[in-house]
Amino acid sequence: MADVSLRAIKKSFGKVEILHGISLDVMDGEFVVFVGPSGCGKSTALRIIAGLEEITSGELYIGGKLVNQIPPAERGIAMVFQSYALYPHMTVYKNMAFGLKFAKTDKDAADKRVRQAAEILQLTPYLDRKPRDLSGGQRQRVAIGRAIVREPAVFLFDEPLSNLDAALRINTRIEIAKLHRQLNATTIYVTHDQVEAMTLASKIVVMNQGRVEQVGAPLELYHHPQNQFVAGFIGSPKMNFVKATVTAADASGLTVDFGEAKPMSIPFGGTTAKTGDSVTLGIRPEHLGEGAGHAMVLTGTVEAVEHLGEASYVHVRRDDGVILTARSPGDSRAEIGAKAAVSTDIAHLHLFDAQGQAFARHSKADAA
Amino acid sequence: MPMVNRRVNVNRIAVHAALIFYTLIATFPIALVLINSMKSRSAIFGDPVALPTPSTFDLIGYQQVLEKADFVLYFGNSIVVTTVSLLLVLIAGAMAAWALGEYRFKGNTLVALYMAIGIMVPIRLGTVSILKMIVGMGLINTLTALILVYTAMGLPLAILILGEFMAQIPRDLREAARCDGVSEYRIFTAVILPLIRPAVATVAVFTMVPIWNDLWFPLILASGDGKQTITLGAQQFIGQYVTNWNAVLAALSLAIAPILILYVVFSRHLVRGLTMGAVK
Amino acid sequence: MTSIAMAADASVGRRRWPTHIVVFLAPAFLVYTLFSIYPLIDTIRLSLYGADETGQQSFIGIGNFVTLLTDPNWSKPFWNAFRNNLIFFAIHMVVQTSIGLALAALLSLPRLKGAGVYRTLLFMPTMLSVVIIGFIWQLILSPLWGISKGFLAALGLGSLFAPWLGQEGTALITVSLISVWQFVGIPMILIYAALINIPDDLIDAATVDGAPPFYVFWVIRLPLVYPTLGVVSILTFVGNFNAFDLIYAMKGAQAGPNGATDILGTFFYRTFFGYQLQAGNPTMGAAVATMMLFIIMVGVLFYLFGVQRKLQHHLA
């Protein structure tokens, strides 16, 4: 068991800097998910922790020990690759036992471990098969098994579910969560899928363009995104953004003009925002309802309606062309082309400055 | 920190040392011939590894070669034979590969296998009959004889490579054309041919190099009457003037220089073509 | 409406005699049949004929083969050429394949600087004519020029020098090594292509598993290129048992000294074309060619049904 610390880690390939100084602490036993759009550097960060990429500058500690120059095999890690990386010419058994050869595990102990892992992963009947004879899900489990037998202090997963079909992906996701509870090993998991991140992580690291945008528990990121990028990335469908201008600011709140009939006061008091500043309002679709029933009302024309059964998403185009997505009940009667109003409770508003940084919202207690 | 780095560096240096060592083995003999072809006879023997200096520089060998043998003509012959054969192989090969890959008809597999025999069985072994036939057709000592034989020789591999390549062209493209009512011939010329251009490099390597370098068929089918290819011409010339070192070295240089220049210019494409062919 | 009409059209077109297929296939099929397959079959037919003084040919069954294998005038050079050809092939398999493999392994190292330049230069000899290569090496090894002697002397090995090409004991080995020098590029490039096609993840996984680099090569990468080694072997086999140019260029049709470098290709040429005072014998030549064809077919079939099957089972 071990914790992992990244200290100002930078990585360049030639002249191109991929990671611009990542600092992060992963506690022992934590399940940390790196999430971000492709090319954000999350896989590079993982490969650095594995020791597959050299660190350009900065320090990496695993279990309190500086491991910058320690080869991967001696870091106490095991990695599950996106492509599974099973050795095609070896049986399932040999694939799983391969790493133990070099860990100086004696034969009987190695055999026991492999069989145990196979049992946990329901692979026992397939031990003598070769990877080509297995289904995608089974291959995935062999890849996980190969990691388990090494009894690593830290598990590394590189987009392990992206090659599976949707149904299998959900199953395997649950299996991985269960496995983590059983083994209680520190786990670092890379994905571009925010649903995977939300469901698996005890802590999410949102990355963008080689930087960490925010670190936090899933719900913390959902409720308190520190910037517009995180706000837009976490949550589905995406958060709506509405441009607005500050018309008055004092300790109790801000008054913003957001393109409707008259400006409105919102509970973001005591911030650095001044009159005349451009800001962006953030409203999650699930907090935006059809009709003018809530305090903040926005208007436009219905552009599209998606009926999902348990809910409907109504897309409303405002006069400035911005499309808002509102979550309505499943039987929404919204008609395409009709004028419509959508509204939200100002307690659910997010507010970002011109640079995309979030302003702190008064808690409900404050507002009351 | 520096420990691992140093180990890596030492390994890297060893790798480069090994590669440079073998690169020297591979290129030195060629360089030696090129260098010495431009030196006087005494310098060739006096210090073979030295580059030509103003005092040892001498093009007497080239002068003699160009006087005594018609190398320009041989070049022309080689170029005609190689390019015409390549063109025929490409056109006929692409058509056959298309027919075999695109249309399901009775005997498709059989014809495909039949066309593949030539990949493994060298056409050379049929020389006795080929000679008889070429004599019978009155084509002995003509470039046409060589072109026909080389086209037959190059087709099997070309069909294989082009077929693999065509298989990667999305089916939808041809189906779309068919839905538009385009004829099969138009589909081939207007849709397929432009798309297989990248495979042409691969086919060219596999077809042209063996033809350009072949000694056997020129020796047997067209060894006189000024129909020699460059390879045969150089062989005959050198056999005749073995003791004239300047001339021999110049003849060798003349025979390899164009290939070397072309190779260095196109090496990226060539090696990519080879590796691509190899992947299949 | 139009779409229905079109569908009907297409089905009619399908039932019609498929002229276009014939048009597409005909050129390749005709040229290939006439100048490749027909000559091979005709050669086999000719091998069953004999010729009298006037050149009149008559069917003699397997007479030529009986002569070839039992008449000492024929069988001795034939078996000599066959044995030499086997040695020629064995040297290629051992030396050429291992050097090719080693170079490919080095070239395929990740992030190797100058890999493209190495590749270009290492493959260079393979592009050149065998004849030219033969002459180049003849010059280099010639005691007259003395450049190889000078090199060995510089290394303190001057006493090792001998006219290798001229001695019966060393000529075949020397010629084989020259051929290896020229053609090592082919196994190199084929194995290289196979090696770079191994997914990086596999190597990364082995690294994480703690396998040392050499072990990764022997246990992961090498087994994954076995099928390519199979292809290399059969290409080498066919090429070697069909070789002619190099020996003809360096040692002439007689493949001296005293037949020491005679292989089936040169034997075939002499039989068919004759040399010096000996007249050529087309039907006997056809018999030799048929024997070569037989040997090559045995090799190819062994590869297709023995080696390749096993390799496919081992992988894929």
TrEMBL record, chain A:
It comes from the Bacteria. PROSITE patterns: ABC_TRANSPORTER_1, ABC_TRANSPORTER_2. One of its GO terms (molecular function) is ATP binding. The keyword Chloroplast does not apply. Keywords: ATP-binding, Cell inner membrane, Cell membrane, Membrane, Nucleotide-binding, Transport. Pfam families: ABC_tran, OB_MalK, TOBE. Residues 4-234 form the ABC transporter domain. Belongs to the ABC transporter superfamily. NCBIfam families: PRK11650.1. This is Sn-glycerol-3-phosphate ABC transporter ATP-binding protein UgpC. It comes from Dongia sedimenti.
TrEMBL record, chain B:
Gene3D superfamilies: MetI-like. This is sn-glycerol-3-phosphate transport system permease protein UgpE. Residues 75-266 form the ABC transmembrane type-1 domain. Part of the ABC transporter complex UgpBAEC involved in sn-glycerol-3-phosphate (G3P) import. Probably responsible for the translocation of the substrate across the membrane. The keyword Cell membrane applies. It is a multi-pass membrane protein. InterPro entries: MetI-like, MetI-like_sf. CDD domains: TM_PBP2. Belongs to the binding-protein-dependent transport system permease family. The complex is composed of two ATP-binding proteins (UgpC), two transmembrane proteins (UgpA and UgpE) and a solute-binding protein (UgpB).
Automatic annotation (TrEMBL), chain C:
Residues 82-305 form the ABC transmembrane type-1 domain. It is found in: Cell membrane. Keywords: Cell membrane, Membrane, Transmembrane, Transmembrane helix, Transport. It is a multi-pass membrane protein. It comes from the Bacteria. Its main location: membrane. The keyword Cell membrane applies. The keyword Methyltransferase does not apply. SUPFAM superfamilies: MetI-like. Belongs to the binding-protein-dependent transport system permease family. This is Sugar ABC transporter permease. It comes from Dongia sedimenti.
